[in-house]
Amino acid sequence: MRLNVFLATIVAWLAIALSPSIGSQKVFAQTVQASADSSQPADKLLTDKLPAGYTIPSQDIPCILPGNRVDIQCLIKNDPDFVRIRDEEAGLEAQALAAAKSGMLDAFHAVETLGELEIFDPNLSVNNNLACSFCHDPAAGYGNGASILSVFTGGANPGSVPITNHGRFPDSRMAKRNPQSYVYAPYYPPLQYNATQGDFYGGNFWDGRATGFRLQNSAAEQGQDPPVDPEEMANPDTACVVWKLSQSNYKFFFEQVWGTGSLEIAWPANVKTVCSTPKGAAIFGTNATPLTLSPSERTRAQQAFDEFGQAIAAYEISSSVSPFTSKFDGFLAGANTLTAQEQRGYALFNGKAQCNTCHVDGRSNTATGTDNGAAANVAPLFSDFTYNNIGLPRNVILPWYAENFPDQWGFTGNPLGIGFTDEGVGLFLDGYYGAPPNQTWGQQLPFFEGKFQTSTVRNVGKVPYKGFIKAYMHNGYLLSLKEVVHFYNTRDAYPGAFVAGACRPGTVEKVNCWPSPEDPNNENMTIGKLGLSNAEENDLVAFLETLTDGFVQTASLNSTPASTLRKPATPPGR
Amino acid sequence: MHWYRPSVKPAALPFILRRGDFPRLRVSTRESVVTLMKRFIPTIAVIIAIAGLIQWRSADDLAIAAVPASKAARLTAGPELETATDGLAIIRWTITNPGGTDLHYGIVHYGTDSKNLDQVARSPNRRNPSHPDMNFRVRIMGLNSNTTYYYRVESAGATDVSDGVSSPVRTFKTN
Predict the structure, then answer these.
(1) Within-domain flag for A177
(2) Minimal Cα distance from B16: which residue of A?
(3) Which residue has better confidence, B132 or A220?
(4) Cβ of A198 and B101 within 8 Å?
(5) Residue A465 to chain B, least CA–CA distance (Å)
(6) Assigned domain for A522 exists
(7) Cβ of B158 and A358 within 8 Å?
(8) Model ipTM value
(9) Rounded to the nearest 5 degrees, what angle is found at the Cα of B125, between the Cα atoms of A460 and A501?
(10) Pick from A217, A463, A529, B172: most CB atoms within 10 A?
């Protein structure tokens, strides 16, 4: 099996080196002619093809570089989605702070509000410039909220640290994957290997590495990771996050929730210097705790860091983020109906398309799509918490593949460059992030290489505005729900190229040509040739769009003064 | 590309990689069978006691036990070739819902000699508990071009429990 990955990598290298198409990074959907301003110089245009309906915002045109790359620092200043996200973030942070100061929140809503304050606070990053919510935009279903990134970087978002090496791309540390939505994530149990089923269940993250084993809360441990990920918020020490909390304007509220003095820690004199130096800086070597604290102070800092994560999980499971208010929820409750097309899509979801084999809807069903029983769960999560390799091709536009040089801090994100293969759970089990907490799990490596989490399909259709391009899957290769469904339906019907951008003449990538999987190991064959017609694909998309929260207006339980103060995170008018 | 190697490696079995293999018993040549039996008397006693308790429970309590032999899965379609190129083939077939684990593996034994199917390909397929049938599809890679291959298929759950289905030998030819 390992040989397959090696060979695939070699093939990818050769194809990229030899193909004039991939050499110029023309890897986008070949469906619609570019709508970019034709008055721009040719070398300024991304490509001659762009996703259907997408127009590069005029503000972004100066940010497009030759070779179909983007100037991330330019986008940070100019892109309209970036500006929108930061504005919404500031508004929600102010709203949460007002609620915290009101003195009217009960204990339940207080911890949720604390989590909200943390998630929308950019000061918790090493350069005080990146909040969790930037990569998890409420208006985009808590995933990537920048259309331009979906199109140019596979949805991968910039981290807190700019890269200033002259002339190098990317000019920012970038996450290696499309950010996974955290809607309903706290409902995933701590990761366990179920020997009876021969399968892993639970955990958070695309690769399950937020196991939840220590806090027994996967979402809380997931929330602790990005603040100290060198590619994301890049704090050099978990205690730095606590120090930043102690400097925040909601310190009083943290201590109100977790106890007086919970942030009172004897910080060393150099705390500001250390905590403003990004993780991965050569000066730290391999030291993961460069902030010098006594053992007892370190313990207190760890406790506060755990409480930080738990508050994040409380916010994520709150009715602001995971409310079960979609049109489908209303349908289950008998409050509304589905259209004929949505009903057909639902029948396909349970039947011919086999979606609910993994995205379980909690209801009994038959292959014919006729529901023959009562609801087993009136609030289905649409995930069985397992992991699968659906055979996605490598998305060569991810800037991660170009992060193979030391930045100005001496940090190299991806020394392997394009040779990096994202093995998903395989990376986690193989020790990429350090040894897994359960040493017996390593034995399962051959069975889980290439697998990624079965995310909930709730809110997959949620977008900030019409025309927004949303990136799907861990590497953002698919750019619409239609593409997602078409991929599941025809992956094996149109095997056409070794890598993206190298489809044979006469075929169109993502239409009747699917490049080979990035990691062929453990490829799930339940999907790949479902035999759906184009109309049936559209029916499925219509059903998936009924899973967007906010359709059902709830009032009874959310009318208390405390909950009224905690508004839903999606800004008004969306 | 391995950053960490587990200290315990899985058994490298080409047919079905087995999970949680118990350590092999090591019995000294001087130990008699009787000695060995004595070592296991407490264990055997516990097993008998548990078996008794299970017998005492009602049949309803045991609804999730293994599928009885009378309801064993059977082949309803295929196996047949779905796709064949110079290096890749996909074989597909359908059986009645085999029960057992949600994660299953389709297994194809193949080779260029019908009497020596010495190569194996296996692919994960997920079982939908509510569907009456289960489709299996297995991807075979690394095939030679313009070559006739012979194959037969079977399937098993994720814990290596066979579904009890085996096909006759079939054939396909690559381009």
Answers:
(1) no
(2) A447
(3) A220
(4) yes
(5) 36
(6) no
(7) no
(8) 0.80
(9) 60
(10) A217
Q: Is the per-residue pLDDT at B81 higher than 50?
A: yes
pLDDT (0 to 100) of residue A22? 34
| CATH assignment of the domain containing A124 | 1.10.760.10
A223 assigned to some structural domain: yes
CA of residue A421 relative to chain centroid, distance: 18
Residue A238 lies inside a defined structural domain of this protein: yes
* Contact call for residues A119 and A142 (beta carbons, < 8 A): no
Phi/psi for B15 (5° steps) reads -75, -70
Q: Which domain holds residue A116?
A: 79-140+215-321+554-574
Q: Is the pLDDT of residue A513 over 60?
A: yes
Q: What count of CB pairs under 8 Å joins A to B?
A: 128
Show residues of chain A in contact with B1, CB under 8 Å: 5, 416, 419-421, 423
Q: How many domains does chain A have?
A: 1
Q: What is the pLDDT of residue A40?
A: 41
Scan residues 52-111 of B and list those with Cβ closer than 8 Å to A. 82-83, 85, 88, 90, 101-103, 106
CB spacing of A526 vs B135 below 8 angstroms:
yes
Put simply, whether A383 touches B (Cβ < 8 Å) is no
B160 contacts on A by Cβ (under 8 Å): 198
Position A68 scores a pLDDT of: 80
Q: Write out the E strands in A319-471.
A: 387-388, 452-453
Distance in Å from the first CA to the final CA of chain B = 34
Tell whether the model's pLDDT for residue A455 goes beyond 60: yes
Above 50 in pLDDT, residue A215?
A: yes
Residue A452: exposed, middle, or buried by beta-carbon count in 10 A (0-12, 13-18, 19+)? buried
Contact B2 A444 (CB under 8 A): no
CA distance B4 to A429: 8
